[in-house]
Design a protein that fits this description.
This protein has 17 helices and 15 strands. The protein is α/β, with parallel strands linked by helices and 445 residues long.
């Protein structure tokens, strides 16, 4: 909502000839609030200003006068100007992934599987009253794909993250949390664990690759174990740069700069470690590969190949094998965490909590993400996803819509049910109105 309020400040100004540049301004906005943002941007344009927006949101793309589409893929597969012009120009360009997804409304159909709660079990949160929640009772069917929706500020994060997740984590994970105020939580014994999918844990495929290098004849002859191929341990890394591949140079009266390590050439490892090769590649060369290249390179190593292919299927094939975690976006980190959960195939009945996992994702990547989310539920787990994206909402089994407004005007349950059931509850639910309009191929509710 912050970006919306900032843009609206300029609405009443008399400025002309200003170029406004916005990077994904629709992040965190409900379609109702997104509509307000687009109206404001249109007014600014009509006053004689120029609006440049970096965006994945479909409605924003459709409203633009001129589109610049980069790609055709991501990472090393991107960086090219694929199309430039009107929406029709993009739709006529075969190389434009964006254009193909916006070409007609064939996608706009309900994809909900309408699963019923496993064994008839429900998780019941009673009397939730933290922040703006108005002493509400919320029932969640277990073993299904649940989506919590509502306009910005309606209480979604307070309900799901501050109250439900923390209350479950105390009971299932023995966590030391202070949950949001509530009366009771019932049905939790039908779960084994709860996990908030955040940028904290990543696929452990590198440990498998280190073990593979340790099994090569050269490594065995030298007595190298898997730890030798970790740039976090002193035995195998370059001691000059401590495995970072670059060294800091302090500059008098200027910010420090980082330059490539002259000793290892930026490869992170010492010469003895780099002498060990698997299929004519040393560990440094492997880490320089993209995930997509790695999936092909380790095609004969089932466990590694499956993990890497899963990441490719999630639209992350452009990431580097050794890419540092701080350089990942929140959306990339969430998808890595999901891939890790699928790769390890947990048997424990888990409830996963995700907060707007589509943030920063292209329409094509949202489709891939939904397939992964459905796969987790197919394994018997429960999903609780906070989301504004209508592509995700229409794929959910059960929706809990909060509102009707934000702040003091929110905190109530205005509608619940499957996407089909929600379509008949448009009187109080903004989500229902925009979902219905979206499925009918209309521009707005």
């Amino acid at each position: 909502m912050q970006i919306l309020s900032q843009v609206e400040k300029h609405r009443g100004s008399n400025l002309r000839g200003v170029c406004y540049i916005l990077d994904e301004p629709t992040v965190g906005l409900h379609p109702r609030d997104n509509e307000k943002l687009l109206e404001t941007l249109t007014e600014l344009k009509l006053k004689g200003n120029t609006i440049v927006v970096v965006e994945h949101d479909e409605e924003t793309i459709r409203r633009a006068d001129h589109l610049i589409d980069l790609g055709p893929g991501a990472g090393q597969h991107g960086g090219n100007l694929v199309a430039s012009g009107t929406l029709a120009d993009l739709q006529r360009t075969p190389q434009s992934v964006t254009g193909s997804y916006l070409n007609g409304d064939g996608r706009r159909r309900l994809t909900s599987r309408e699963r019923k709660p496993s064994s008839g079990n429900w998780l019941k949160l009673q009397g939730a009253r933290a922040r703006n929640l108005k002493n509400i009772d919320v029932d969640l069917p277990l073993g299904t794909f649940n989506c919590v929706t509502g306009v910005s500020g309606s209480g979604k994060s307070t309900l799901v993250e501050e109250t439900l997740y923390r209350a479950l984590a105390i009971k299932l994970n023995k966590a030391d949390f202070q949950p949001g105020s509530h009366q009771d939580l019932l049905g939790w014994k039908n779960l084994d664990r709860v996990m908030e999918v955040d940028p904290a844990t990543y696929v452990g495929v590198l440990s498998e690759i280190r073990r593979l290098f340790a099994l090569t004849p050269e490594a065995r002859a030298r007595g190298y174990g898997p730890g030798r191929f970790s740039f976090n341990l002193a035995t195998g890394r370059c001691q000059n740069c401590k495995g970072q591949g670059q060294v800091k140079v302090e500059m008098a009266f200027l910010p420090d700069v980082y330059v490539k390590c002259e000793q290892c050439g930026g490869h992170r490892y010492n010469s003895e470690t780099l002498a060990v090769r698997y299929k004519d590649k040393n560990i440094a060369k492997v880490l320089e590969m993209t995930l997509e290249e790695g999936a092909n390179f380790f095609g004969a190593v089932g466990k590694i190949q499956r993990s890497l292919q899963l990441l490719v299927d999630l639209g992350l094939g452009y990431l580097g094998m050794g890419q540092p975690s701080p350089t990942l976006s929140g959306g990339e980190a969430q998808r890595l965490k999901l891939a890790n959960e699928l790769a390890t195939n947990h048997k424990a009945r888990t409830l996963y909590v995700l907060d707007e996992p589509t943030t920063g994702l292209h329409i094509a990547d949202v489709e891939k993400l939904v397939k992964v989310l459905q796969a987790l539920v197919d394994r018997g787990h429960t999903l609780v996803v906070i989301e504004h994206n209508l592509e995700v909402i229409k794929a959910a089994d059960y929706i809990i819509d909060l509102g009707p407004e934000g702040g003091d005007g929110g905190g109530e349950v205005v509608a619940t049910g499957s996407p089909v059931e929600l379509l008949n509850k448009t009187e109080r639910s903004y989500t229902a109105r925009y979902l219905k309009a979206y499925l009918q191929g209309l521009n707005s509710a």
